[in-house]
Design a protein that fits this description.
Radius of gyration: 18 Å
Largest sheet: 8 strands, parallel
Shape: globular
Distance between the termini: 44 Å
Order of helices and strands: EHEHEHEHEHEHHEHEH
Number of strands: 8
Helix content: 25-40%
């Protein structure tokens, strides 16, 4: 597609020659879907999300002005062999000096992100908001410990404390995940809980829990959304979050020590309308706005 953008990359926030120290955010794509257990296509998401980022404006939906923030798009980190390339990706993450925004890829790409963030904030309390239809707590899935169904299990092994993990939107389970879910110390809010309690109530609980942390990373699988809002994903699960509920959750994070976001499992070939790509892009831009409002409130 050769359609020209109405704005620059990332809604005019991208500064091509910005040094890492000058940027507020670093965007890094990880276009890999080799460990997805069902339908492929997520490897194409970074390119499509970037493409359509030229058609969003530097404002959030509440008219927060994002101009002045600097996004440094560092391109893509290629993954051919996860066993050897994931540790290299973790080193890149560990060396970042600002707030990274990662574009998956299937959810397995978050394994090196967790490892790098844990190294980055060594000695500090790293909290995690996990927004997903699945807990991804399998120890081994389909013969691999690096599967997209094993991501959070690996994150816990890297040293993320269960008490500092909030999972929102869950509605699908594997047998080997049940003990950790039912006997562990993680804070679980299913999609049904959100429907019954309301997202504002759930988000208030999540915020209270994560406020105890020194740093907070957000990992969002687009299948957290109901397939009516985001059909372009490998394993769409009926009964998910609405787009408004997802935005309410992201917007509730203002003031927390946010240190990163990954958005994964967007599979453009599975959604010709590209509504799923636009959903991911909206979440990313609203995350940027949350950081902007938090900084404005702090400086004020």
């Amino acid at each position: 597609m050769t359609l020209e953008g109405t704005h620059g990359l990332w809604g005019d926030l991208h500064v091509p020659d910005a040094a890492p120290a000058q940027a507020d955010f670093t965007v890094l794509g990880i276009p890999f879907d080799g460990l997805a257990s069902a339908r492929k296509g997520a490897a194409l998401a970074p390119e499509r999300i970037r493409f359509w980022s030229r058609h969003v404006t530097p404002f959030s939906e509440d008219r927060t002005r994002l101009a002045g923030l600097v996004v440094r798009d560092a391109g893509d980190f290629p993954v051919a062999d996860p066993a050897s390339d994931f540790p290299k990706a973790a080193e890149v993450v560990a060396g970042l000096s600002n707030i990274p925004i990662f574009l998956g890829g299937d959810h397995s790409v978050t394994i090196p992100i967790f490892q790098g963030q844990r190294q980055r904030f060594a000695g500090k309390r790293l909290g995690l908001l996990w927004v997903d239809a699945h807990p991804d707590l399998c120890d081994d899935f389909d013969g691999s410990r690096l599967s997209h169904a094993c991501v959070l299990r690996r994150g816990l092994e890297f040293g993320i404390d269960q008490q500092d993990v909030c999972l929102v939107g869950l509605r699908s389970w594997e047998e080997q995940e049940i003990d950790l879910i039912e006997r562990g110390q993680m804070h679980v809010y299913t999609a049904a809980d959100v429907a019954e309690l309301g997202m504002k109530s759930v988000a208030a609980d999540v915020r209270k829990i994560l406020a105890r942390c020194d740093a907070v990373h957000v990992s969002l699988d687009i299948d957290c959304l109901d397939p009516s809002a985001a059909p372009g994903t490998g394993i769409p699960e009926f009964g998910g979050l609405s787009s408004r509920e997802a935005l309410t959750l992201i917007q509730s994070l203002q003031g927390l020590p946010l240190v990163g976001l990954d958005v994964v499992e967007v599979a453009p070939p599975l959604d010709p309308s590209e509504a799923t790509v636009f959903a991911a892009l909206k979440i990313i831009m609203e995350f940027i706005a949350v950081v902007a409002r938090g900084r404005a409130a702090f400086s004020g």
